[in-house]
Amino acid sequence: MTSDRNALATPATATAPAVSPSAAAAGTWTLGDLPVRRVGFGTMRLPQTGGALIEDAVPRDREQAIGVLRRAVELGVNHLDTAAFYFSRLRSANELINRALAGPSGHYPDDLVIATKVGPARDASGAWADHARTPAALRAQVEENLRQLGRDHLDVVNLRVLGTDSVAERFGALAALRDAGLIRHLGVSNVTPEQLEEARGIAPVVCVQNMYGIGVRPEYAEFVRHCGEQGIAFVPFYSIAAAGREGGTTAAAEPEAILAVAREHGATPAQIRLAWTLHQGPHLLAIPGTGDLGHLAANVAAGALRLTEENLTRLAEAHAPTET
Q1: Catalytic residue (one of 86, 108, 212, 220)
Q2: Active-site residue 86, yes or no?
């Protein structure tokens, strides 16, 4: 899928802007009929400090979290990724979004697109529960997202999958909710190419959310390309954290290729990881998450980095090292 609307210019060299980063620098993509800037924001880390999705997570300061969300929108971010199971003992990502961006009026910014996901479940203590697999359970999760966000419909709902079994019944249940007006667009997450095609046989799919990044799942390269050919956004999660996953970046040393490219551009390794993601095709959308204003600005600024062909070749070697 190529058009001026979905294109990202790539001049030979450039570095991240020194001031006033803007999510607009990375270009845009359209999820169904919803245009979004390609640098978005993931809210998984907002409800707590430290590791996410654990029972004893330390709640983040409410005003800090709200400030990060509002600053993200000020920097041009108009694509948020969230879920009802993103919560700590005192904080819920959806409630924070509602409080920060809708407020007493209940009116969100007109161009804001909120994508959520259903399937995974946690009980009130934060412990993991069985995935929602029935139409009734999935509808309950959709309605909980609607309630927490204070909306009468959800922009994008991703079906998060565990395993390689059929998604037909579950995706069909979400397609019925789409037909009923509770959901505008549908996506899938943590899926195989076969599961994607099964879902597409039921209803249009606007995005795929799978784990992907430098050195992570290099075997997905063809899958990523296929999504672009079909006009489907590919939205990697853990593109910065990599093997750190819910715990965030690890203390492990970065590959020398990433460090070298970062030095050349006066950037951080995290920014290079994000820039590499965006350079994999105009349909790649980044959703880095943070509870820190400085990290937020750096993540948004990464959208303005233009990697050279030499940079990309070197990073490709770090992504999928050749056997010797």
Answers
A1: 86
A2: yes
